[in-house]
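Progress note, sequence design subtask.
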């Protein structure tokens, strides 16, 4: 029997995960089926229970169900517990396990693919939502000199920094407080602002000389990256590499092998996955 996997979300028609995992399966010679599962709001636990009861092997989880998936997983990994969110579920001897691969996916894209240095760097993480919380532990594990979290709702930035205070030199603040702060080596946009063609109100001088990353991605550079490039950023990258790397990490968890990602990222940039999802209604996507 072919092993069955899904990505569960709402909406989910835009997801490129079926295409990515189909490519991983080809590249590793694994036989698997991977589909989209549109789950009604409020219906995650029922849908996941049914999927695994019907013999499903593993599930990726996207917006807005990552916290539901964390509650659903009887056995979350340490990093999933720290993130309070799960994007990868699987069943092993009747027990549902959960992991969060966003952090390792981001770090792999930054360090291995892009060659950016996090160790010893001054890092600004913009946003304090699910994505920021999911990647914070992995970023701090790289030992940056300082990691400042800035968020529109200041209390969320401070709470997040307090939650990870034992993991490294991290602090939370509001945008107004950045006025007197030193430059950063790396600026990571973990807000959803780009999805609405908006930019977080960062002082323009911070972009000059910094490596700037937007976890969002799309067919064109995001507004955040366009602003960063115009303000003199050293280099710019969007979250497509993170998308593929977090998927590769899920594949590793499920299948015990890390698929090669370089060609998959290149093919996605060329728009190959578009062939597999003619119904995709959105240009900017979220996983
Ligand atoms: P959440 O809804 O959990 O959090 C949204 C965050 O964005 C909050 O910090 C919110 O601030 C902030 N925000 C929203 N709009 C604005 C704005 N106009 N100005 C400033 N701040 C704003 O979303 P997620 O954390 O789940 O997702 C964030 C981003 O990460 C999305 O773009 C998503 O696509 C991307 N992502 C990419 C992945 C990948 O693999 N490439 C994986 C996961 C996420 P406040 O707290 O004040 O509301």
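Output:
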């Amino acid at each position: 029997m072919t092993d069955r996997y899904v990505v569960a979300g709402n909406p989910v028609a835009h997801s490129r995960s079926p295409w990515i995992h189909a490519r991983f399966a080809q590249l590793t010679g694994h036989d698997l089926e991977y589909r989209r599962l549109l789950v009604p709001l409020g219906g995650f636990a029922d849908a996941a229970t049914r999927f695994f009861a019907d013999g499903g092997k593993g599930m990726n989880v996207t917006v807005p169900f990552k916290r539901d998936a964390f509650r659903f997983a009887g056995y979350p990994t340490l990093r999933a517990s720290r993130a309070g969110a799960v994007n990868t579920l699987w069943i092993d001897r009747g027990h549902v396990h959960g992991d969060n691969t966003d952090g390792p996916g981001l770090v792999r894209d930054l360090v291995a693919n892009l060659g950016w240095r996090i160790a010893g760097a001054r890092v600004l993480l913009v946003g304090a939502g699910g994505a920021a919380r999911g990647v914070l532990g992995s970023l701090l594990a790289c030992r940056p000199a300082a990691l400042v979290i800035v968020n529109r709702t200041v209390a969320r930035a401070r709470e997040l920094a307090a939650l990870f205070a034992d993991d490294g030199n991290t602090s939370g603040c509001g945008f107004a407080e950045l006025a007197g702060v030193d430059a950063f080596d790396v600026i990571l946009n973990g807000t959803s602002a780009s999805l609405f063609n908006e930019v977080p109100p960062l002082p323009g001088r911070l972009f000059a000389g910094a490596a700037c990353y937007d976890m969002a991605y799309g067919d064109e550079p995001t507004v955040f990256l366009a602003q960063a490039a115009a303000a003199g950023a050293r280099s710019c990258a969007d979250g497509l590499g993170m998308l593929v790397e977090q998927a590769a990490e899920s594949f590793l968890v499920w299948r015990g092998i890390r698929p090669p990602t370089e060609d998959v990222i290149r093919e996605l940039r060329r728009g190959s996955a578009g062939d597999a999802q003619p119904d995709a209604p959105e240009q900017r996507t979220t996983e």
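The chain has ten helices and twelve strands. Work on this subtask will continue into the next period as scheduled.
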